[in-house]
Amino acid sequence: MNPGPHVLTHRVDGDGSPLLLLNGGMMSMAAWEPIARRLAARHRVIRCDFRGQLLSPGPPCASMEDHADDVAALLDALGETRVDVVAASFGAYVGLLLAARHPERVHSLVAATVTDVADEGVGEPGARLAEAVRAAAHGGDRTAVYDAIVHLAYTPEWQAAHAEELAARRGQVGLLPDAWFTGLEGLLGALVKVDLRAVLPKIACPVLILAAGRDAAMPLERTEAVVAAIAGADLVVVPGSGHALAVEREDEFVLLAERFLERVHRATGAA
Q: How far, in Å, CA of 70 to CA of 97, rounded?
């Protein structure tokens, strides 16, 4: 389903209250599949690729604000006036900006692994990834990008338990088109400019912030600053998980999101 040539490429599954999933920077909408399948039992689940994530048309947006406006335009195209949002990492920044810039569109928000200021939250693993992406986008070693993603996203224990799977995916990275690497470079360029401190107090919808206890990229104090800036926001720290919280702790991620959504819908009387 794609109602126009400039609308973000997307997919809709299930019936029920509308629920928008927003990708991490290194994700695609396909990466949500295990979680989307579970959530679609109760919700109309909407997924999309941001510009720069290969499937959506056009170059990456120059700013995270533009990504948020892109998502609002997608909701317009789908006829969705108001949605719940579940978002991870890059998508969590977009989700927070969507709630701040288009408050009438966001009923509630679950934002995982996010900070108030992005360039203070990436640290050495993020710098390694950015350098690998820059090199690959200009003809360098593509597998170095995947190695940097794995180092950033997963705990050593999860890597060891899924070594065979990760090795297979590493081999597939070299087959990706050039546009994936240039797109990722553009996504990271928008990310490092993000400073949400001025807009977070504008968010009025119910918000649940999820943090990963062993996140190699996002300092907990910067995540706590997001919670402190949003009136009534809740924080749950998932111990033992790396940055890829929705992958390493899929069951807990879904359970926390579903409990939050149920609580919000009971409180607001939403369908």
A: 11
